[in-house]
Write a structure and sequence with these properties.
The chain has 378 residues and is an alpha/beta fold. It is 47% helix and 19% strand. Helix 1 links the parallel strand 3 and strand 4. The structure holds iron/sulfur cluster.
C-alpha cells in the first residue's frame, strides 16, 4: 500500500474525497444533459460499472433545467461541469447537484465567482477548480510563449506547471477571502509527463484534495497508456484522491480501467475475479488467446474476488497455478486444472473451458458462503 499525501476532506453528497478516504472513481456522461432519459440511463450504467461520482456537462439553461429530473432517477452524486457561464453553476446548485466544476480559464470575473461561492456555501456544495492546459495557453503568457518556442519539452513543461500553480493560487485567493475551503483541485493536459509534474507541484503547494486524470487522452488504445503512465506514477507517490480516466469512447471503459488501475496498485480491494494469462510463445499448443477471451467473458458477472490463471504450458504454469484460486495449464490435447494450488483434474482440450468454469463457479460459491458467514457473525 502506498502512503497517501495528507489532504483536507470534502464530501460530494455521500462520497468523501481526500482526508484519507478511499480513492473514488468518477466519470462523465457523453449524452446531451437535456436528454433526461439518455443521461439518467448513462449515469446508472456508469454507477453500475463502479463510478462513485458522475459529471454532466451543462452548457445551456435547458441542461440545468433537466438536472432535477435526472437527480430523481439516479442514486450516485452528480457533478455539474460549468464553463463560461456562471449562471449555469447557480442553476445547477439550485437544482441540487452535489458538486460544481469551474474552469479558471473561462470563468474569471470575481463578482461572478463570488456569487457561485455564496450559492455553494448555502447548499454545502463543494467546487472543483480545474485548470486545463488548453485554457492556460489562452492567457498568452510571454514566458510560456518563449518556452513553447523552445525545442526543449522540459522548458515548456516547467512554464506550464508554473502557470497552472499560479492560476490556482490567483483563483483560490477569492475562495480564501470568503473562507471557502470546500475545494478539490485538478490540472489536466493530454501530456502524461506534464500531468505528473503539475500534480506533484499542486500537491506540494496546496492541501486541498486532488482530482487526477489525463484529459483528451485519445482513443482507448493510446489513451490507456497515457492515463496509466500518469496516474500510476502519481498514485504510487500517494498523490490523488479521486480519479477520472477519459477516453474518446464509451465512458464505461473509463470506469472499468480506473477500477483495474486502483486494484493493480493495491489501492482498492478486488471484489471481482482477477484473470491472469500467459502471453503465449513458441511452446504453445492450444489457441490460448481465444481461450483466455472466452474465460474472461465467462467471469463477467461473478462478484467475488478470486484469481484465475490461464497458462499455456508447464514452464510457468504450475507456479502461477499455485498462486491462483483456479488455474488451467493447457498442453497438447489436454489441460491440468488446479484448485488452490492442488492438481484437481486432467481434461481433454475440448473440455478445458467448461471444466475451468465449473471449478471457478464452485470456488466462487465457497467464497460467497464465507463472506455471508462473516456478515452474519458481524
Ligand atoms: S506459460 Fe509456457 S506457453 Fe505461456 S508464455 Fe510461458 S513458456 Fe510460453
Amino acid at each position: 500500500m502506498f502512503p497517501r499525501r495528507p489532504t483536507r476532506q470534502v464530501w460530494v453528497g455521500s462520497v468523501p474525497i481526500g482526508g484519507g478516504a478511499p480513492i473514488s472513481i468518477q466519470s462523465m456522461t457523453n449524452t446531451h444533459t437535456h436528454d433526461v432519459d439518455a443521461t439518467a440511463a448513462q449515469v446508472r450504467q456508469l454507477a453500475a460499472a463502479g463510478a462513485e461520482l458522475v459529471r454532466v456537462a451543462v452548457p445551456d439553461a435547458r441542461d440545468t433545467a433537466a438536472l432535477p429530473a435526472i437527480l430523481g432517477q439516479v442514486s450516485v452524486p452528480l457533478i455539474a461541469d460549468v464553463h463560461y457561464r456562471y449562471e449555469r453553476a447557480l442553476e445547477a446548485v439550485e437544482a441540487g447537484v452535489h458538486k460544481i466544476r469551474l474552469n479558471p480559464g473561462n470563468l474569471k470575473q470575481h463578482k461572478q465567482v463570488e456569487r457561485v461561492l455564496a450559492a455553494c456555501r448555502e447548499r454545502r456544495v463543494p467546487i472543483r477548480v480545474g485548470v486545463n492546459e488548453g485554457s492556460l495557453v489562452e492567457r498568452a503568457d510571454p514566458a510560456l510563449r518563449a518556452a513553447q518556442q523552445s525545442r526543449l519539452a522540459a522548458d515548456r513543461r516547467r512554464e506550464l506547471v508554473r502557470l497552472m500553480v499560479e492560476t490556482l493560487e490567483e483563483y483560490l485567493r477569492v475562495f480564501e477571502k470568503h473562507d471557502f475551503h470546500d475545494v478539490v483541485l485538478s490540472a489536466k493536459t493530454p501530456d502524461a509527463a506534464l500531468a505528473i509534474d503539475a500534480c506533484r507541484a499542486i500537491s506540494a503547494r496546496f492541501d486541498y484534495p486532488l482530482h487526477v486524470g489525463v484529459t483528451h487522452a485519445g482513443p482507448l488504445q493510446t489513451g490507456r497508456i497515457r492515463s496509466v503512465a500518469a496516474l500510476g506514477a502519481l498514485l504510487a507517490e500517494g498523490i490523488g484522491d479521486t480519479v477520472r480516466i477519459s477516453y474518446a469512447d464509451d465512458p464505461v471503459h473509463e470506469v472499468e480501467d480506473a477500477k483495474e488501475l486502483l486494484c493493480a496498485l493495491g489501492l482498492r480491494a478486488r471484489v471481482e475475479p482477477e484473470l491472469i494469462a500467459c502471453p503465449t510463445c513458441g511452446r504453445i499448443e492450444v489457441d490460448l488467446v481465444a481461450l483466455t477471451e472466452q474465460v474472461r467473458a465467462r467471469l463477467s458477472g461473478i462478484k467475488v474476488p478470486l484469481k484465475v490463471a490461464v497458462m499455456g504450458c508447464v514452464v510457468n504454469g504450475p507456479g502461477e497455478a499455485e498462486g491462483a484460486d483456479v488455474a488451467l495449464c493447457a498442453g497438447k490435447g489436454k489441460g491440468i486444472i488446479y484448485v488452490r494450488g492442488e492438481q484437481k483434474r486432467i481434461v481433454s482440450e475440448t473440455e478445458m473451458l467448461e471444466a475451468l468454469c465449473d471449478e471457478v463457479q464452485a470456488v466462487a460459491q465457497q467464497i460467497e458462503r464465507g463472506q455471508a458467514g462473516v456478515r452474519n457473525a458481524e
